[in-house]
Amino acid sequence: MPLSGATQVLIVGAGPNGLACAITLATLGIKATVVDERSERPYGAKGCLIHARTMEVLKTIGISDNLKDIGIQSKGIVFFGAANPILNVDIAGLSESATEFPYILLTPQSEAERVFEEFLIDRGVEVIRNRKVIGFRESSEEGLRVYLEDGSSVIASYVVGADGARSTVRSLAGIPFKDPSSNVMYDENPSSASFMLFTLADVVLNIHSSIHIPRDAISWHLNGRIMFCPLELPEKLRHFDAPGSSFWRIAIAIPPKSATIPPRHPDQVYLQNEIDIRKPWKESVHLDHLHTAATYRVRSAVAETFFKSVGNGKVLLVGDSAHVHSPSGGQGMNLGICDAVALGRAIAQHIESGDDAIFIDYSSRRKEIAMQVIQATKRMTEIINIPNGWRRRIASILMYAANWITPIRRKIAWRLSGLTYR
């Protein structure tokens, strides 16, 4: 059914960021229209960590309780050198006065989206799918006329770009999107040899009982450049629920100028071979089933501004539409959700006052945090990227020493959890 008429707020993109913005507006009595070009909610190896600060923000819009029971409450991240742990980022060790949510919630992004969408539907807001935005222009009425691929259009006072790193909304608004270090535009395509690659996969593993892998924390094996994150077994994979088998997100880092480039969608043979080569443990680990996998190029970019007036309409950006960075530390979905809640409140305030200073402040504050996250994830990626040998041994010694210095260990936990961005 074609979209027509007018809406106060049009949110383009029904990922966690677009949905969180719509929920925030709904709690403030503003009903947004949410469109997405996809026909159904996707499942893929995307975000799977929800940090403490994000849970705090979600509590303010009444949805944190809906999330707590859909995943694993992880104690934190354990970094391994060879077979032994060298640094334990202990989120569970944060005091009760630090946060109500002293854990990392491990759940696939698709599950968070499901919870968000059900929450919205209960409040009379539905995601309108198969609706691809292809253009907009100033309307003679209040706002922008937004055109969709099916030939329909809608007038909106506020257009929110929550449509990812290749954002159509950002592109139509003419907002530059560049790497803050190199000033290279995101849409430019330099040689893949200059980028680190990450293969992310959701898999069922059969792990020998002698392997002491944490089942309540994320494990980063730096010598092998491979990560293991425990997840709850999806309902559709219950037939794999057997002794020794469990469900995991794995991340495999491939440094720049690597001799081998992974396929865009790796198969089970490729992933098993990579696990065997990287040898996170002496005993073998068997990959019983590949659920989903994809390879991503690690790039950083930030929009010049997260807000732009177009005629008498307002264009606003959240999440990957506004910033992208390394997946190290699982900050992407978290930063985007916090953007979205802040933007929902800013839109409500602007509806009330009409003062563009509200959006200028939103853009400035959220961009400042995005820049901090980009720098932090770049540093973590550099640590992962250190080649084995004497440099890796020195890095491991320094990390092991940091593990015994409480203020340093606490500072790392504070930043990883997002609490530092309050």
What are the defining features of this structure?
422 residues, alpha+beta, FAD/NAD(P)-binding domain, 2 domains, eight-stranded mixed β-sheet, seven-stranded mixed β-sheet, 31% helix, globular
Short description:
By secondary structure, this protein is of the alpha+beta class. It has helices spanning 16-27, 52-59, 64-68, 109-121, 168-173, 268-278, 332-353, 357-385, 390-403, 406-416; strands at 6-12, 33-36, 49-50, 72-74, 76-80, 85-90, 104-106, 127-129, 133-138, 144-148, 153-161, 177-178, 197-207, 218-221, 226-231, 245-254, 285-297, 301-303, 307-310, 313-317, 323-324.
Which of globular, elongated, flat, extended, rod-shaped describes the shape?
A: globular
Helix content bin? 25-40%
CATH H-level name of the largest domain... which superfamily?
FAD/NAD(P)-binding domain
CATH topology of the largest domain: FAD/NAD(P)-binding domain
Main sheet properties:
8 strands, mixed
* CATH classification class of the largest domain: Alpha Beta
**Number of beta-strand segments:** 21
The fraction of residues assigned to DSSP E strands is 25-35%
Instruction: Kindly give the count of domains.
Output: 2
What is the CA-based Rg, rounded? 22 Å
**SSE class:** alpha+beta
Number of helices: 10
CA distance, first residue to last residue: 42 Å
The low-confidence runs, each spanning 5 or more residues with pLDDT under 50, are none
CATH structural architecture of the largest domain: 3-Layer(bba) Sandwich
Return the average pLDDT rounded to an integer.
92
